[in-house]
Amino acid sequence: MAKPRTLGQRFAMSAGVGIVAMGLFAACTSGGGDSVVDQGTSNDENAASGETVVIGFSGPAADHGWLGAINSGAIAAAESFDDVDLRIAEGTNDVTAQIAAVETFINEGVDAIVLLPSDGAALTEVAIKAMEAGIPVINVDREFSSPFAARTTILGDNYGMGVSAGTYICAELGGTDAIVAEIAGIDALPLTQDRTRGFNDALSDCGLEVSARVAADFTVQGGEAVTSQLLSANPHIDAIWNHDDDQGIGVLAAIDAAGRDEFFMVGGAGSRNAMDLIAADNSVLKATIIYPSTQAADGIALARLIAQAKTVGDLITPSVPNRIVLDAPVVTKDNVDQFIDLAFAS
């Protein structure tokens, strides 16, 4: 009887099948004659300057390193195009203020809106209003509660983060009866629930489970407080997954204060300080899982294409996808150089 494939192997196989299918499709549509597929605009056509488009951007207050990188990335992306006029609403965690900002964009008649909502459900109605006014909305990171609220949605892979973290820990610990701990973010958030679910699924695939779990609040102070409790309650741990590198500063402070180093730790998101520690290889932090801070920058790039009636040049389908989920790769000392330029400052 064949040995069941692990979750990680099944992920890899599905990706491989997709690549093969694309190759076969390309082979069927090329060959001796002209292609039967209209591939839309090419990469060269997309890069060429077009009619100026006005893009409104609104996101939460940058009270977290990752959110700061989201905002700066959006600005940098807009500045890289000479045909984009970016109008930025002041960052806010006040739902009413963000709704007002979107309504201002609608009244101004912008060509597209890139929106990272402070609360996806609460911003859904005004996003639908923009769409009904003929303004395409690009929804970033936190999803709206209706498919009619966005032309395109760009997401990080929260479930995939958990799978990546669990798969890495499984590979490091093997099939041992290990003690695995988890330091989550805010348990009330769907993103935290998705990360935990992916982590549990991956651990289960190799016969492990979470032995101890605490939840912080994505802050340095919160990370330090709950980690102190976790370490006091568990005299021995083999591996820890901390969901967020910003709160990881506090997590590592608590670990240092306790003088504990019998375990290794995996972080989450991909901060610069985390990657520097991984590269130095002189702490318990051995890896982090990317949660891309480029989502709003990607949103600006796609908003420009949509507003100019262009397509994604490398895709066969002559359109811009309506849903994009970005990868959640594992960063270790062996590949940190590939990712460090995209790291954000905590």
Automatic annotation (TrEMBL):
Signal peptide (UniProt feature, chain positions): 1-26
Cellular component GO terms held in the UniProt record: cell envelope
GO molecular function annotation: carbohydrate binding
InterPro entries hit by this protein: Peripla_BP_I (IPR028082), SBP_2_dom (IPR025997)
Protein's cellular compartments: Cell envelope
All copies of domain Periplasmic binding protein, residue ranges: 55-310
Main location per the UniProt record: other
Alphabetical keyword list: Signal
Family statement: Belongs to the bacterial solute-binding protein 2 family.
Database matches in PANTHER family: D-ALLOSE-BINDING PERIPLASMIC PROTEIN-RELATED
Protein name per UniProt: Sugar ABC transporter substrate-binding protein
Organism: Pseudolysinimonas yzui
